[in-house]
Every structure is written in C-alpha cells, then in structure tokens.
Request: fold
Amino acid sequence: MSDDTSLGSMPLFAGECEKQHLGKGIHMLRMWANVCIIESGDGVALFDVGLPFHGPHIVEELRSLTEKPVLYIIYGHGHADHAFGTPFILEDAERRGHPRPKILAHEALPRRFDRYRRMLPYHEHINRIQFDIPEGIPAFPWEYVYPDETVREEASIRLGDLTLELRHARGETDDHLWLWIPERKVACVSDFWVWSCPNVGNPFKVQRYALEWALALEEVAARSPEVMLPGHGSPLVGAGTVREACLEVSRALRYLDQQVVEMLNRGMWQEEILHSFRWPEEFSESPYLAPIYGHPYFVVQALLRQYHGWYDGNPSHLFPSTEAEVAREVLTMVGGEDKVLQRAGVLEEKGNLQLSLHLLDFVLAGGKEGVEEAVKKKAAILERLAGEEKSLIARNIYLAGARELRKRLESSRPGDSG
Ligand SMILES: [Zn+2]
Reply:
C-alpha cells in the first residue's frame, strides 16, 4: 500500500486538508478524518464533520466551494474525529443568515455522547495514549451537539435532485450510518473503510462488531458504487475496485469470526485461541488489510469478548492473588532478582523481546533492589518494539509504556537540592 492512501498520512493536529472532487456535486475534504460535501439544488449536506479543531478549516474549504446553505449535517458515527466540527458550521450558518442545518445521526449516537460526557477524564486518558497526544492539547471533545433527528435502520432524504439513503449497520461502533447516493453511484462509508485491517478490537474501547462490519461491506458492494468515500484515507474509484476492496475485507472478517466460533465450539479457551488463529498470506499481503491501525490479533480479542465471558478456563485465575504476591514467590524460588534480570538480558540479546518483558515484569511487580534496572530494560525494550511496530495503536501503547517507566525512574531519583 502506498503511503498516499493511508490513515496516518494526514496529520492529526494540523488542519491540513486536501480538497477532492469526485463527480458532480460530490467533494471530499481529505483530513485526518474525511468530510464529504454533497451539493445539489439549493443546498449542501455534510457527511461527517471532523475533530473539534478541524471545524474552522472545514468551513473555510466548504465556503471556497459554495455559498449555499448547509441543510443537513449527518454524523457517520459518534467518534471524536467524525462528529465534532459542528459548532463552527452552525456559527457559519448563523453569520450568513442561513437556517440552522438539521443534524441527523443513528439512534444510538445520543447514548454514546451521554457516555462520553459522563466519562470525559477516562476518555481523555485513553485517547492520549492511543493517539500519542502531548499533554496540554485536549485529547477529547468537550462540546457536544446532539442530533435533531435520529435514524434506526434506514432513512431517505432529498437534496435537490439527489436521494440520500442512510443505512445503519454496527461495525466500528453501534451508531454507524453509511450513505448511498444512487443518482451518482457514490457511497460515503465513514469508518467502515479506513485503509487498514478494520479496527474491530481496539485495545481501549467498547465492543465492536466484526461480522456485522463484514455484512455492511457486502451491502455496500451490492450497490456497485463507482466511488467510495472512506472515513480516513483516499477515496476508492471504479466499480471493480470498490467491489473487490469491500469483499476482500469482508472475507477476512468472516474468516476470523468463523475461526473463533469453531474454536470456542471445540472447547478451546481464549489463550489457546489467541495463539492458534490463522491469518493467511493473501490477507497479510492485501493492500486493504495492512495492520497499520487495527490488527487481526485485536479482531480476535474483540470476537472473544463478544462471544464469551471473562473467565479464561483456568480456575487459578478465578479469584487470583495479586501479581506482586506471585512475583515475590517466584523471585524467592529462583534465588533472587539478579537471576531473573540476567535471564531477561539473555532473552533480549537473543531477540526474544516479548519473553524478556514477561521476566522483567516479575522484578517490577515483586522486586526491590533490581527494580531500577528492570525499569530501564523494560523501557528500552518497549522503545525497540515501538520502532518495529506497524500498528499505530500498538506503537503508541509501547511508547506510552516506555514514557511512564522513564518518568518513574526520574521521580525515584533524589533531587540535587538536598
Ligand atoms: Zn475515524
């Protein structure tokens, strides 16, 4: 896959924006999260409206295209980067004396907004890690503009001579809509397409839906779109390309779902499933499934969480001791922290970074005099792993972990004032 198409190729913070024309009255603002501008008759509809701080850029680009009023704002889903440029668009309408745009979303979206507002500090915290957002920059939206009308399964509106068909399916979220414009054979699909292995099992976030995501992509393909405007990255153009892309990703999701279901039916538990699922070469080589954001391993995690409870099959883990208690016993048994640190070093040299991390964790959880060295070693390994990792989410988790450890090292050092 060329960098040009990918999710990470547009910066998150800058208002960098590329305007793309994709047929009569169809435009896409390519930003971190794309904004679709549909223009017909006397007005405009916007599908997805970006991050809060992208609002001014969206208005500027929109007004370089047309003076017409925005009649509809449609939220593809309620994530922070898709439904939060609204205040600036409303302000623009007011300034121009236009009627207030009508805001449409799926019926589950207000519940999502309620949850976000109830758990703002938590979402600030996890988004800061996921996107590596520096302190001092808000990591989560604080201003929420709720929809005026909601859609359950489907709805259809007219915009000039165009029909805007809104369809619901669960995928990255439970409040996802995608838009079909039959007169132009254009599908706006928000995060049903992000130029990555679908972000089904995001390590931080609530349940996502692999099989329903697959079904949604099959439904998109069945309409034979000539153009598909994704939530992130470049548009897909050409009926053959769009169809092939949608069906390939849907096949991969179905394949993972099928494996998890079969293994659960055979009586396997999560640890075994996570180490035995298959991701064939045709998928790892596909330009549509690169693990640069989502990851097949994360998808399997999500399927496990969807289909079974938290018990992992080992009764020792039902009411477990703390990690520190277990670690102290192990350290005593092997004859001290030094031995564990030494072995962790050997494993690291051999390139088995993961196993080395597990050993260092015993010292970090239950050790005393070896902790400082374990902190240094673990931080270095995490940085090395981050350097090799393709998935933006996994990479940022490693980097945040390393940063935390280095902070711990600094705060445990006596100050030079005393
Ligand atoms: Zn998104």
Remarks:
- The longest strand covers residues 162-168.
- The two ends are 56 Å apart (CA to CA).
- Residues 29 and 35 are 5 Å apart (CA to CA).
